[in-house]
Amino acid sequence: MDEHTIEQLGMRLANRAYLQRIFHIVFGAEPSAEELATLGSPETVAQFHALAEVFRQDDLGICMESIASSAAEVLADAEKLCASLGDRADDAAYVEALKSDFTRLFLVPGEAYVHPWESPYIGKEVMLFQESTLDVRHRYAEYGFKAVEFGHFPEDHVSMMMDFLAHLSTRAFDAFGDGRDDEVRRILLSQQDFAREHLLNWLPAFRDKVHEKDTQGVYRRLADALVAFLMVDECFVEQALAEIG
Prior knowledge:
Helix content is 71%, strand content 0%. It has 245 residues and is mainly α. It has one domain (3-244): TorD-like. The radius of gyration is 18 Å and the shape is globular. The termini are close together. The mean pLDDT is 89. This is Molecular chaperone TorD family protein. Keywords: Chaperone. It comes from Gordonibacter faecis.
């Protein structure tokens, strides 16, 4: 790889870890003023902007043809949404209203409730800790990952799984900086398989449910952004693996 390619690849490895943590925060707990300030920070807005620019420049090539137009629009919308949330971080009434939305959608079973974990979407019954959950647990153990939410969330909760991906992305970035390409390749392949087996298999259905239940629209737009990000990231991993060789 030439120097420019190395620089660009390193930047993207860092950027994806940042956004994976953002999605971990967004779907992991009721929002606070501090969270909205983080979402509206120049760093977060810039990350979504940079990701949307990938489409405008066709940086990911042919693998993006089927999703480029819609994903670019969704990610540009996420950039605008984050900026607007940051502007309202000091609005206590707005923060409380958003907390109510989160609770209604993801915490308290009821008419508007949406399951934020994998098992109900892939099993025959809406239940926790199916075979897929054991596989998630095994993958966490393989990389020595232990989230702070263990014991509070199901292990296949979307927030915990995004935290796991961010943990791996940080390790991949560190390995890339040290020139350990074999380790980068191993981690990227693990992430790719994990995303296909445990995220992209159910998050589109989760997104559709959020669209149906979220009358205010903030979490609907964030769910759109999450699915778009994961689809883009799958293409990035394919490109990165090809460049690393």
